[in-house]
Amino acid sequence: MTRVTITTKKSSHANKFGKLVFGDGTVLDGMGFGYSAAGFGEIVFNTGMVGYPETLTDPSYSGQILTLTYPLVGNYGVPDPSIKDKDGISKFFESDKIQVRGLVVHELSLTASHWNLAMTLDEWMYNEKIPGISGIDTRELTKKLRTGGVMMAALVVSDTEIDVEEIKKQLASSPNYNSEKFMDIVSTKHEEVYGSNEKSVVVIDTGVKNAILRNIRNLGYKVIKLPWNTSIEKILSYNPKGVVISNGPGDPQNCPDTIDTAKKLIEKNIPTLGICLGAQIIGLAGNTETYKLKYGHRGQNKPCINLENNQIYVTSQNHGYGIDPDSLKDSEFNLWFKNADDKTVEGIKHKTKNCIAVQFHPEAAPGPYDCKFVFEELGYLMGEEKAAKK
What we know:
7-stranded mixed beta barrel; 10-stranded mixed β-sheet; 11 helices; single chain; 21 strands; Rossmann fold; Glucose Oxidase, domain 1; 2 domains
């Protein structure tokens, strides 16, 4: 019988001064942890219970301060970031760094214990120069954002007393999330290839998660990851069987080059799948409109209805913008999925072309795997018999 050694580590970058300053003037005190710095960004909340290593490295959170509503965070620590799978894709993280500008929790576990533990949460955040704050009433904070909507905030961690008035001045002059251009931050700067299969799928990287790459590899395709503004001519030069437009941060209207490429992919009837931001981009390419949600959908417990079979699927989500349902009637798309809670658009299918898109994350990571069949739908569009039988 093999015995598993359970590693335990204690926090070493906690018990600092910490303040959370909102754009409306509200100030909350807490215990600072991670790196001593000030982070400015849009404050949002995530209702998931687990998966903070995947969540914090999701590029869709670029430019945001993340609040985790689950009350205890950090108890299982963080795995080794250097571990890769057989294709060289990070095994436990969704990108190569922490993407959030700050982390808000109710209680930071000062002891982490897990068989796969490499470091504590506060140690990881310290290494990546990200501030965190503990001791915040995250239920009250969530109610505040649900009532008033998301807003700009500052999260400050310091080894000495914090000058709140100075932080308020800095916050007032910091760039607003809605106007920030994130593509040059989150998108690859050059071609990246994973696998050596003859058939390939191009991924337009607008902030892609590693799990999306892995799911395409599991379909049996080579993945060619390209920058967000790659031309249609360059994409077609790879002779791909299909194209995926990925998730990512910010307003889809800030991706005009990708929208233009999506229009041409639709015109040429290239099998295409959009995920999250990619869904909004595809929607805009097919004459829908997009808008900013009051507080977004972020978590691993979001119910969506598939209108083709009337079944409800539990999904993983992370987005602050959506497709306007009223704009669908004059668009090129039919509604495929809708949110069971607020009836927002969660999936669309083109009326005549091989183009589908979902607002949720079929690859999960973290979250339930109820909707991995969406990748099989892409396989069907690309002519996979096995996918068609399923």
